[in-house]
Amino acid sequence: MTSMLMHSLRSGPVSPARFAARCLSTSSQVHAAAKTKKTLAKPNVKNIVLVDGVRTPFLLSGTSYSDLMPHDLGRGALQGLLNRTGVPKEIVDHIIYGIVIQEVKTSNVAREAALGAGFSDKTPAHTVTMACISSNQAMTSAVGLIAAGQCDVVVAGGVEFMSDVPIRHSRKMRKTMLSLNKAKTLGQRLSLLGSIRMGHLMPELPAVAEFSTAESMGHSADRLAAAFGVTRVEQDEYALRSHRLAKKAQDEGLLSDIISFQVPGKNIISADNGIRPTSMEQMGKLKPAFVKPHGTVTAANSSFLTDGASAVLIMSEEKALALGYKPKAYLRDFVYVSQDPKDQLLLGPTYATPKVLEKSGLTMEDIDVFEFHEAFAGQIVANLKAMDSDWFAQNCMGRKSKVGVPPMEKFNTWGGSLSLGHPFAATGCRLVTTVAHRLQKEGGQYGVVAACAAGGQGHAMVIEAYPK
Predict the structure, then answer these.
(1) How confident is the model at residue 30, as a pLDDT?
(2) From 132, 151, 396, 429, the catalytic residue
(3) Thiolase N-terminal domain: which residues (predicted)?
C-alpha cells in the first residue's frame, strides 16, 4: 500500500494557482540507520534527557472514559510515570501540563492531577495551552527550566477529555444571570427574569474552529488539500496506511509507552480503541464531512475526538546518571513557527522542519526517524507536497530551494494520530516518546518531531538517541 501511496503522490495532479506545489518525489538518499553520526552535544551547554514517557490508552470520546474528568486521566498518566520510572516524588522540582479545552472546575489541571497522583503539595505545577502542541510546549518549558539551572527534574505532559466539554449559556443569558446574582430586591429580580427570551436559552456549542477566521479546522484541511491537489484517494490511502501500521505496532507490542488505566467501576483499559484497519472500498463510501458535497475530507481520513493523557520525565543528564537512570534520548534543538491561520493553518511541519534542522546543523538525510502529527490525511500529504516544492519554498518560505521530503520508510511507521488517536494536548509527548523508542528499536541516531496547531502555529524538535 505504501508503494501505491508514493506512486499516487508522484503522479497526482499539480496543485493549482495559489501554491503551485509540485508532487512528491523520493529522490532523497536514505542513510543506513546504524551509521554513526556526530553528536549534537555543545560545549558548556547542559545535556537534557528524556528518561521515559508514558500515556494512558487513547480512547474514542464517549467510550470507557466518558464519566471521568480531565484531571483523572492526568493523574493516571502521572501515576503510571511514577510506577514506570520509580522516580522519588520528592525530587521532582516542577510539573507542567498542557490542555486545550479547560474544565472550569480544574483550571490548573497540572496541579490537580499532581496532587491526585500523590506528588507533594510543595511541588509547583502549572498548566500551558498551545492547541495541538500544548504538551510540546510543556516539554520545552521543562527544557528551559533545566537549561536555566532552575530545576534538575521536571515532569511534563498533557491531557484532553473530549467526552465532556464546556457548553455555555448564550452571552445575553450569562449577563442576565450575573445581574440576577447581584440584584438586591425582589422587583429587580422579577424584572431581570421577565427580560429573558427564548433566544437567550440557546446554548453556545463548542467547535474545533479558528476564532480569527471562524472556519473549522476540517474545512481548512479540505481547502488545503484542494490547493495542493491532494485527491480523496491519496487521503484514504494515507489514512489506511496509518491504521495498518498502528495495528501492526500494537500486535507486535511496540506501543510500550501505554500504561494500563483502571476506570472506577469498569474494566482495566490497556489498549487504544481507535485503531481500525478497513479497506479503500469501505472508506470510499463515506461522504465529505466538512465541504459538502464535493469535499475530500471525511471521518475516515481525519483524526477522531479522543480522550487521553501523557507524561514524560525530563532531567539534566548529570542528575539522571547520578540517580542511576539510563536515559532514552537527548532532547536537542527545537523551534516554534507561526504563519497565516487562514490559508496556511496546517503547514506547521513544512515551516518548522527546515528551521530545526538548520539550527542543529543537520539535513533531511541525517534523520533516521520522522514522527509528524497527523491531524488529517490531507494535511499530511499537503505538507509532504509543500516540502517537495521549490516554488512553495521560494514564494512562501523565502528559501532558495525546497525543504525535501521524508522517506516513507522512516515516516510514522508505528501509526499516528489518525489511528492511535489525538487527545489534543497529549499528542506531543506521544510523538517524542515514540521517536525515542523507534531510535532504540531501529538503531538510528536522530529523530524529528513536527506538528501543526490551531492558529497557524507549528513545532519541531530534534531528538538524539542515547548511546547504548
Answers:
(1) 38
(2) 132
(3) 48-318
Is residue 391 located within the same domain as residue 244? yes
User: Apex CA 222: angle with CA 219 and CA 225, to 5°?
Assistant: 150
Whole-number Å distance between alpha carbons of 419 and 25:
25
Q: What is the pTM of this model?
A: 0.90
Q: Which of 23, 151, 429, 452 is catalytic?
A: 452
Domain that holds residue 190: 171-201
Digit-coded pLDDT (tens) for 30-68: 344 445 678 999 998 999 999 999 999 999 999 999 999
**Residue 92 to residue 51: CA distance in whole angstroms:** 13
Give me 365's grid cell. Answer: 538525510
Instruction: Report the CATH number at residue 226.
Output: 3.40.47.10
The tally of domains found in the chain comes to 2
Q: What is the mean pLDDT of residues 398-402?
A: 96
Is residue 322 helix, strand or coil? helix
Q: How far apart are CA 296 and CA 66, in angstroms?
A: 30
288 domain-assigned:
no
23: annotated active-site residue: no
Q: Can you tell me the distance from the alpha carbon of 149 to that of 297, in angstroms, rounded to the nearest whole number?
A: 46
402-417 mean pLDDT: 98
The verdict on 400 and 346 lying in the same domain is: yes
